[in-house]
Structures are given as structure tokens and as C-alpha cells.
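Teaching note: in complex prediction, the entire set of molecules is handled at once rather than each chain in isolation. The prompt given to students was simply: 'Predict the structure of this complex.' The entities are:
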Amino acid sequence: MSVESLPDLAGHFGRYGGRFVPEALIKALDELDAAYRSAKADPEFQARFQDLLLNYAGVPSLLYRATRLSEALGADVWLKREDLNHTGAHKVRNVLGQALLAKRMGKPRVIAETGAGQHGVASATAAALLDLECVVYMGETDTQRQALNVARMRMLGATVIPVTNGSRTLKDALNEALRDWVSTVDTTHYLLGTAAGPHPFPELVRDFVGGIGVEARAQSLEQIGRLPDAVAACVGGGSNAIGIFHAFVPDAGVRLYGFEAGGDGVATGRHAASITGGSVGVLHGNRTYLLQDDDGQTIESHSISAGLDYPGVGPEHAWLHDAGRAVYEPVTDAEAMAAFQLLCRTEGIIPAIESAHALAGAAKIAPRLREELGRTPTIVVNLSGRGDKDVHTAGAYFGILDQAETLVPGENT
Amino acid sequence: MSISETFAKAKSEDRAVLIGCMPAGFPTVDHSIEQMIAMHEAGCDVIEVELPYSDPVMDGPVIQKASDIALANGVRTRDTLKIIEAVASAGATVVLMTYWNPIEKYGVDAFARDLAAAGATGLITPDLIPDEAAEWIAASDRHRIDRTFLVAPSSTDERIRMTLENCRGFVYATALMGVTGARTSVSSQAPDLVARIRAVDPELPIGVGLGVGNGRQAAEVAAFADGVIVGSALIRSVLEAPDRATALTDLRALSAELADGVRTGR
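The expected output is the structure of the full assembly:
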């Protein structure tokens, strides 16, 4: 079976994916699958989705030639500017698609989990636009480090519920959202934020964000005159990465690189690199790579980036890794923050710390590709989000906030 | 006694089976063994040992908390097997309930083998549906472990049929759409779900779980189900007790109350 035709009807990407959830959710997943297939084939639904992307979200995003960054990295670097989308990240594509689907299914309430708050803000936005009730589960640790996004969600009319179980981060928010869904499935759509979870979510989310790659591919042909040598993206759950990868998968000459959050370094055990530092298992409804101990208990992930701080990864990435079609490597917090600063200083763009992992990865592969190709490589980097939400974290990291500012997270951002 | 024998015996006594759940290693390995034996002695026909897991999406706050305590105190999968062995040796019929990943990590066939060797008669899998269970079905056949999958009020008749075909021992009917935890009243969806299951398979015993916390509720469920599954309420009596002696006393008292309940429902 070719990579492009996956998953199969039961949601398997080879041995990955599937459905590992309580039986109570199966009917809802089947209904979602059926609703999605009918929406996919419905020109009216597709037109409405495209209209919202174009006229509301600001899509297609630019493919921008980053000249000064290119000089610094020794590669021809093009940025897919998903940071310019409404709400500041690629996530808006997924939430608009799923919120339209919720309307189509007649469900008046959506729930979402969020790490950095990007997906929560995007969900609250789509819910406001389409008049849906919205409840967002967010780990308590994340509500503290992303206070600004909590305020954003509340301003948009969403209810934010801090989750105090387990590690109090994204994985626990996801558990809590699943528990909510088991109890409320008749009236509620679970607006899952990444290309992971039980079938059909990995496929559905991939398709809703897949425009990133379709656009980037067409823009490359038009603006560069050919396809890039490599496409780079950060990988937490992996939605922005699968969004830009998918359209390039059949292009054998385009190398696909996913950069995982290496935290303090994979060797230290304090990281969020599921593929490069984890093993195969089942978590949150799908079989994939995850961080786990010898007993199969999930290990807490660590990353400076709340959006990548997740111990699993979408099943299609697991498959692309095993198939050798995409290459996954870790990027440490320090490497990501250096790239964060470099982009600020060379291009006047403050990236999300998540996206800074992709930039740091591009910096790593540039010299390798240069050697391999014998010329300057062309790299498209998915700049998946903007860094406004990270100004406090980055300010503290670089020691450029004074004491008073440090004590009031987000107030001056 | 096997699960089937346990259900058959209860049927001959015109009552329901009482299945009491307790996480392995909560709060410690030794104390959990003591608690399970106390439950057995006080009238639980089946001890459902729950393997503590870091991400129990089917469980409400009480079982989550107990699982967290067990894991924080260092319980391992091999400890769970030892606990099963101790409780089975004390004469209890033991089934294990576990999320799937710990089994996959252990090795599916090796786990079935070691589970059988420890004396458990069955396995309940809250997040493994028959659709994904080919490896488990083969391993459980090889090592003669009964398979309990879940059905829910939302299950279609087609899925109920498929699930029952893959169960052996008993089927777990989740009484309501939700997570584990005692409720103030028994779900009105439960009798209907049980009737739908019986319409497909009149023979396979049906255990009803989710939301049962006292003798009155146990009696209500016993009126229409073959087995009554109680977890959170038993666990809470340990969580809330000021000391060990009280914990065991309360646990015995609640088990006895529930055991009375399953005998007065019919």
C-alpha cells in the first residue's frame, strides 16, 4: 500500500493508529467518520471551508524567502508563514474544519484540549464564529506558563478548565477531554487538536491542515521554480508537520524532516522526543511511538515549548518514520532558543518556540544537505505559529525582563 | 472457581454475583492484598484487580487518585501479578482489569501466560475493543484466560453482537455514558442495555458497572443483571479512612452491605 493512500478504513497506518478507546466512544467515532466522509464529498461543505480559510483565516499563507536567515544558515530558506494566519498558527485550519463538521452533525458544544493554548484559542475562535459552546481543558502547569492564552480563550467566550491530574500538561488535558466526551457525546464534538488520537482524527486533522503542504508545493513551483530539497517542521503531536509533509510525500526528491522537542537532550531523559527517544505503544487511542517506562506507564515529557510538550506523536509520523520517508531528529531547548533569537534578529519575525525547533533543525541539516548536494540547498520551513504567546518564556530565558515584569506573566506582552 | 462457575453458582442461589474492584498496590502492595482478601471474606464473589495506569481515561477521580498513589509508591506490573497470586491463593476468584498499553509492553503472550499462572481467570480491557484485539484473542485462547470486553448504551446492536461473540466468562455492561464513580442513583439506561444484550445472547452472564455505591443500588442492579461491579465506593472507603484498622473495617462493612444487596434484589 502506498503511503499516500493511508490510513486503511479502520484507521491503520501500517501497525500504527487504530482505535484504542472505551466502547462507549465507538459510535461517536463512527458517526464522525461518516459525517467527515460525506462532508469531504460535499462541494457545499468544501466551499464553505475554503471560504472561511480565504476570507476569515487569511489563508493561503505566504511562502516568504528569508534572505538574511538564509545567509546566516548557508541555505536558501523559505518560510511558510502560518504565523500570519488568524489566531497566529496553523491550528485555525483544523478548528474551522472541525467546527463546521460539528455544526453539520448538529452538535451544539465542542470541547478541546490544549497545551500552549494555541489550539484552545483557535477552538474558542471557531466556536465564537460558528456559535458553539466551547470548553477547553488545559493542564494547570500550562495555564500558568501561557496565562495570556487563557485570557484570550475566556475573552472569546470559552470556559477554560485547568486540569490538576498527573503531570498537569497536555496529556492530562487530553485524558480529561476524553472523559468529558464519554459523558457528553450526544451533544458534544471533541475538537481534537492534533493529528493523533483514535481514528478518524489522525486522518481528518491531516486533511484539514493539509492545505499547508498543497499551498507550499504550488508556491514553491511558482516562486522558486522547482520543488525544495527539503521540508522542515516541528513535531509534537505532529499536525503542522503532517500538514506540510502530506502533499510532498509522493515527491521522492523532497526530503521531509520532523524535529522533535529534545528538551535538555534525549540522553538526559528530560525531553518530548517520542520517535527519537521513545518506543512503540498505545496512548490516547492510537498505537504510535511514545515515552514510556518498562511497564508501559507514560513518562512525563519535558520541553520549553508547551505545544511540543507531549509524550506521544501522531500515527502517520510513526509510519513515515518506519517507512523511511521522513526523518525525525531531536532539537534541544537551547538549540531552539538560539534559532528563535536568530529569526528575531535577522528577519524581524518572532516565531513560536514550537516553530523555532523547525528553524533550529533547518540550521542543522543545512550543512549536511550542502555537502550531499554540492550546492546551496533549498529548504522550506513551516513557521507554524507566531511567538507573541512565548514572549514571557523567551524573555525569562534570555534574561531580558526586569524583576517586576518577571513577576507578572503576560502583563506587558 | 472460574468466572463461569461463579456466575452459575450465584444463579443457582437466585442472586447476582458481586464483583469488587481494587487497584493493585494501593496504597501499597501488602495493604492492597489485605484489602482484597478482606473484600473476599466479606462477600465479594470476584475480586477485580485493577492494574494502575498513568492515563486511565475510563476512570473517574477516585480510581485515578488511587492509581496515582499506587504508582507513586512504586507498584510495578510484576507486583500486580504477585498480588493476584496472593489473592487467588486465599480462595478468591480473581480477574484483572487493565488498560492495554501495559500488556503490550509486557508482551501479549507472556502476559497471558503469567496472568494464568498467577491464578487470574479473566481479563477486562476497558480500552481494547475486539476490532483491535486479534493478538489478545489468540493469546487468551492459548492460555485459557476469559475475555471481558465492554458494551455501552451507545453500542449498536451490531457491535453488541460482535462484542459478545468475542467475550468469554462475562460481558461488562457500562451502565451509563461516563467514567467510573459512584452516583446518587442507578442509571436508567442500564436495564435497557441488559435487555439488548440478552436479546443477542441469553446465556453469557452480564456484569453491570459504573455508578453503584451502596447496598440499595446493588439490589436494584441485581434485579436485572447477573453481576454487580463496584469500584469507586470501595476504594473511597480506604481513601477516606483515618487509619488502617478503620479502612479494613469500613471495607468489610461496605462489602457485606453490597453482598446483602445482590441477595435481596430478586
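Point out the following to students. Residues 3-149+227-261 of chain B form a domain with the TIM Barrel fold (CATH 3.20.20.70). The longest helix of chain B spans residues 244-264.
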